[in-house]
Design brief:
By secondary structure, the protein is mostly helical. Helix content is about 85%, strand content about 0%. It folds into 2 domains: about 1-65; about 90-134. It is rod-shaped and about 115 Å long. Keywords: Membrane, Signal, Transmembrane, Transmembrane helix.
């Protein structure tokens, strides 16, 4: 019984008392407005709410996807930095420089060849880690 009263109150349109209407036509007009408001609720408001929910859900999932991609990129960057520090490329390059003749060593250091080589190797290692993470 409580459920029946709740349903009646939920579907009861209080705006039917706004304009006094008399006679049989007034009653049928009021009943028509009442049932049209129920019909509009089921055919317009509910589908619109469902559509709005799916728009919200899609945008939230897209946000979640980009957030997870960002966090994956941050983690991969930290892994690449630790990997580069473990390899210690600068030590390997300095060892290779010490084995070169002095004139070739001076020419290569004037052209900053060893800095470019270190940067290239670090970029390749970072690219390798990024490719493994995605």
């Amino acid at each position: 019984m409580r459920l029946f009263i709740f349903v009646l109150l939920a579907f009861f349109s209080f705006d039917i008392f706004a304009a006094p209407q008399t006679g049989v036509t007034g009653f049928f007009e009021t009943a028509t407005i009442f049932f049209m408001s129920i019909y509009e609720f089921f055919t317009v408001i509910i589908p619109t709410a469902i559509g709005d929910f799916f728009v919200w859900l899609t945008s939230y999932l897209l946000y979640l996807k980009f957030y997870l991609m960002y966090e994956t990129l941050v983690f991969a960057h930290e892994v690449a930095l630790s990997f580069i520090q473990m390899i210690n490329i600068n030590e390997v390059v300095n060892t290779a420089i010490s084995n070169l003749p002095p004139d070739l060593r001076q020419a290569a250091s004037d052209m900053r060849f060893f800095d470019a080589l270190s940067l290239l190797i670090e970029a390749l290692i970072t690219r390798l880690v990024y490719q493994m993470s995605f």
